[in-house]
């Protein structure tokens, strides 16, 4: 269950990172409310995961999921460049997440 909490926390991190773009500097109420809600859920679930996982592993996986998801959605939603270098770096982050899971 701990890893489930951590993955869901990472998904909510993606949500709030993307949500920041839609808040337009926190000037739009509903996107801001959704972003803040996603932040709270993300950090709460991270806290639950850290009850049993090492802090370094939990934090690295959480931020890794958030980073990969945010980069991919940035490419899909905001037409950010999908260059070989960016995709290779995302692959390295994914490799790190899998490595941490396998060694924890």
Structural features:
single chain, 104 residues, mainly alpha, 4 helices, flat, transmembrane helix, EmrE-like
Summarize the structure.
The chain has 104 residues and is mainly alpha-helical.
Using the CA coordinates, give the radius of gyration.
14 Å
> How does the helix and strand content classify structurally?
mainly alpha
- Helix count from the secondary structure assignment: 4
Q: What is the H/E order? A: HHHH
Strand count, sense and closure of the main sheet?
A: none
End-to-end separation in angstroms reads 14 Å
The count of β-strands is 0
Query: What ranges have pLDDT less than 50 throughout 5 or more consecutive residues?
Result: none
Range of strand content: under 5%
Mean pLDDT, to the nearest integer, reads 96
| Number of structurally distinct domains | 1
**Residue share in helices?**
over 70%
Write down the overall geometry: flat
Membrane topology: Multi-pass membrane protein
Transmembrane segments: 29-50, 57-78, 84-103
Keywords: Cell membrane, Membrane, Transmembrane, Transmembrane helix, Transport
GO cellular component, one term: plasma membrane
């Amino acid at each position: 269950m701990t890893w489930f909490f951590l993955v869901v926390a990472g998904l909510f991190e993606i949500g709030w990172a993307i949500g920041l773009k839609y808040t337009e500097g926190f000037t739009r109420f509903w996107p801001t409310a959704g972003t803040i809600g996603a932040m709270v859920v993300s950090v709460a679930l991270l806290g639950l995961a850290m009850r049993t996982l090492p802090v370094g592993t939990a934090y690295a996986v959480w931020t890794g999921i958030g980073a990969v998801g945010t980069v991919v959605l940035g490419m899909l939603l905001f037409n950010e460049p999908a260059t070989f270098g960016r995709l290779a770096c995302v692959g390295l982050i994914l490799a790190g997440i899998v490595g941490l899971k396998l060694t924890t």
